[in-house]
Amino acid sequence: MRAIGAFILGITVFASVAVTTGRAADEPPAGASEAKAPATQPPASTVPVTPKDAAPPPSVTIIGASEAHGVLGRDVRSAAGEDMGRIVDVIVDRSGHVRAAAIDFGGFLGVGSRKIVVDWNALRFGKIANKKDSITLELTKAQVAAAPEYKEDAPIVVLGASGSLQPLQVIQ
């Protein structure tokens, strides 16, 4: 009985399509070519577009939380525990290699302080697990106090770990 009901329902739907369109349900529309109509395109916003010369996906490196830390704003102390200031900038050469760090040195609460530049190799990052840990500078407070002030767009004088002042080599 169900099979007869489904058959009658199918004939009714077929006849309804034929009456509404004036053609059979499986008959192509008038003037249509033998090829089937192309599938409806989704909206343009969902169509992925990949240019022919698209860059490959970037590589991804995961660094563990205990393996690396930011240095800007970190306190710097001498090996003797003297407050040397705070790292305020990182100096890189034209090839992108880190050469030095600018330290806001001296003064009280930012008043009377000046920026000096120390060689990156003079810094020790042994214990900087959290923001309260400081970076150690292998220079004395007297050596750093004698360093000239760092000014942007001027030659940079870098205080080296041996305590001697040496300018960065200028690449022309």
Mind describing the biggest β-sheet?
8 strands, mixed
What is the chain-wise order of helices and strands?
HEEEEEEHEE
Q: What's the overall average pLDDT, rounded?
A: 74
**CATH domain topology of the largest domain:** SH3 type barrels
Rg calc: 37 Å
Q: Catalogue the unreliable spans.
A: 1-21, 163-167
Task: Tell me the domain tally.
Answer: 2
Architecture (CATH level 2) name of the largest domain: Roll
Oligomer: single chain
Number of helices: 2
Q: Helical content, roughly?
A: 10-25%
Structural class: alpha+beta
CATH superfamily of the largest domain: PRC-barrel domain
Shape: elongated
Q: Kindly report how far apart the N and C termini lie.
A: 94 Å
What's the count of strands? 8
Strand content: 15-25%
Any overview of this molecule?
The chain is α+β, with helices and mostly antiparallel strands. The protein has two domains: 1-28; 75-167, Roll (SH3 type barrels), CATH 2.30.30. It is 15% helix and 23% strand. It contains two helices and eight strands, in the order αββββββαββ. The model is unreliable at 1-21 and 163-167 (pLDDT under 50).
Q: Which short descriptors sum up this protein?
A:
172 residues; alpha+beta; SH3 type barrels; 2 domains; 8-stranded mixed beta sheet; 23% strand; elongated; disordered N terminus
Topology:
Blueprint: H1 2-21, E1 75-78, E2 83-92, E3 98-105, E4 114-119, E5 123-124, E6 135-137, H2 141-145, E7 157-159, E8 165-167
Parallel strand pairs: 1-6, 4-7
Antiparallel strand pairs: 1-2, 2-3, 3-4, 5-6, 7-8
Quick rundown:
The chain is 15% helix and 23% strand. With 172 residues, the chain is α+β, with helices and mostly antiparallel strands. The protein folds into two domains: 1-28; 75-167, Roll (SH3 type barrels).
